[in-house]
Design goal:
- By secondary structure, the protein is α/β, with parallel strands linked by helices.
- The chain folds into 4 domains: 137 residues, Orthogonal Bundle (N-utilizing Substance Protein B Homolog, Chain A); 35 residues, no CATH class; 57 residues, 2-Layer Sandwich (Alpha-Beta Plaits), CATH 3.30.70; 207 residues, Vaccinia Virus protein VP39 (Rossmann fold).
- It is built from 19 helices and 14 strands.
- The strands form 3 sheets. Strands 7, 8, 9, 10, 11, 12, 13 and 14 form an 8-stranded mixed beta sheet that branches. A 4-stranded antiparallel beta sheet has the order 4-5-3-6, covered by helices on one side. Strands 1-2 form a two-stranded antiparallel ribbon.
- It is globular, with a radius of gyration of 25 Å.
- 44% of the residues are buried.
């Protein structure tokens, strides 16, 4: 709601105005809501509670945009895509508060939207915004959805605000119950998970440091060096991250490195290494003994690896600016193990970024699968006989996971799949995938979605041109 200025005029609510600004910027310039807010909130004088509210509104509207538009279209005679961007996004902000934020009374949400519209749009939009939002408030407990039996994909798409093409894929692959559980999990904000830097502190000591700062946390379920922050000021936890005592990293990413099973004294290649989270984890598990070759095609991004490893106290890293698709042309030495944590569509991490689901496409999945295969074959000649490649993605799509591994094994018979589960630091239920690999799900395991396969080299092979 607007605030009265000294002259009686209404001063615009800075929280909703900044949320609107972020949404408009994302829509008009294709920018990322979270990245834009990081900069703008750091510059603002808003109270921390107000900053949290800006973030909740902007991310909530972005995440639930499809459902919000479905609801608004029930009560708005003008098609939403024909409305100007400002009133369209003001309607979304108002509807999100009415439908999802029990802490905001419907009249407050309506009045705040009206004041924003008065100030930023033309007079004809004020009555429309007011009428539509009041009807949303009156009918919020009786919103019709697409027919579940006749249009199952559309029903789930609208109800859980995911692209229909992606819901169709998952229904075909995973079935109704699994897909609905996954969609629901993607709309739950993920916890802050930290990997403890065991080069500097033990997990027990780190938990004590958090407790001293009023932060409640508990050990991760599957990764022995991870902790999950459950309460308190996350800013206090992140101060310890900046000191190099921990690294913000999902548990699934920690499990990837444990499956690689680095040992002191080994030589390990980390392909696609930036920004260095897994590189620094490899260094910790190697106890800073041996050598890590951190490769990335973007030399600038290798500086992030260098910065991360310096902060974490990892001293055994050699930076290799090179394209992993031709890794064998840039390195002459053989290595014991290779981590190929490839760029991917990221469909296993949709809960992490509010706008991620709207930036995916079937074309992206096909494009990524081609790149992933090229990266995997590019490192094959560098592996010693008896050595290992761990291939991992944060995608749930078979084209990027099993099919890439299948294609690689067909063309590289010198490699065989290993039973990945035997390298897990702790048992994980219901994670089996083809080729001895594992797949993690947000709704099953409480982690980001991930696919992890371990391939062992049994003989020398040819270089694939």
């Amino acid at each position: 709601m607007g605030r009265r200025g000294s002259g009686g005029e209404v001063a615009l609510d800075p929280v909703r105005r900044l949320a609107l600004e972020a949404l408009l910027r994302a829509e008009e310039q294709n920018s990322y809501v979270n990245l834009y807010l990081q900069t703008r909130l750091a510059e603002s004088n808003l109270h921390p509670r107000e900053k949290a509210l800006v973030t909740e509104i902007a991310n909530g509207v972005t995440r639930w945009r499809l459902y919000l538009d479905w609801v608004l279209s029930r009560f708005c005679k003008t098609p939403l895509d024909e409305l100007p961007p400002i009133p369209r996004n003001i309607l979304r902000i108002g509807a999100y508060q009415i439908l999802f934020m029990g802490s905001v009374a419907a009249p407050v949400a309506c009045n705040a939207a009206v004041e924003l519209t008065k100030a930023l749009s033309h007079p004809g939009m004020v009555a429309l915004v007011n009428a539509v939002l009041r009807r949303v408030a009156e009918n919020k407990d009786n919103i019709p959805l697409p027919d579940r039996d006749r249009e199952p994909a559309r029903f789930l798409s609208v109800k859980y605000s995911h692209p229909e093409w992606l819901v169709e894929r998952w229904l075909k692959e995973w079935g109704w119950e699994e897909t609905e559980a996954l969609l629901r999990a993607n709309n739950e904000p993920p916890p802050l998970v930290l990997r403890v830097n065991t080069l500097k502190v033990s997990v027990g000591e780190f938990l004590e440091l958090l407790e001293e700062r009023g932060v409640s946390a508990e050990p991760c379920k599957f990764a022995p060096d991870g902790v999950v922050v459950r309460g308190g000021d996350k800013g206090e936890a992140l101060k310890l991250v900046r000191k190099g005592l921990a690294y913000a990293q999902d548990e699934s990413a920690m499990i990837v490195t444990h499956i690689l099973s680095p040992r002191p004294g080994e030589k390990i290649l980390d392909d696609c290494a930036a920004p260095g989270g897994k590189t620094s984890h490899i260094g910790a598990l190697m106890q800073n003994q041996g050598e890590i070759l951190a490769m990335d095609v973007h030399e600038q991004r290798l500086k992030l690896v260098e910065k991360t490893c310096k902060r974490m106290g990892v001293t055994i890293v050699r930076l290799v600016p090179a394209d992993g698709r031709s890794a064998w042309l840039f390195l002459s030495e053989k290595v014991d193990k290779v981590l190929v944590d490839v760029p991917c569509s990221g469909t296993g991490t949709l809960r992490r970024r509010a706008d991620a689901r709207w930036r995916k496409s079937p074309e992206l999945i096909r494009e990524m699968a081609g790149l992933q295969y090229e990266l995997l074959r590019g490192v094959a000649p560098l592996v010693k006989v008896g050595g290992v490649i761990v291939y991992s993605t944060c995608s749930l799509e078979r084209e990027e996971d099993e099919e890439v591994v299948r294609r690689f094994l067909e063309r590289h018979p010198e490699f065989e799949p290993e039973e990945t589960r035997q390298y897990l630091p702790r048992p994980i239920p219901d994670c089996e995938a083809e080729f001895g690999a594992i797949r993690l799900f947000p709704h099953r395991h409480g982690t980001d979605g991930a696919f992890i396969a371990r391939l062992v080299k049994r003989a020398e092979g040819r270089v694939e041109e």
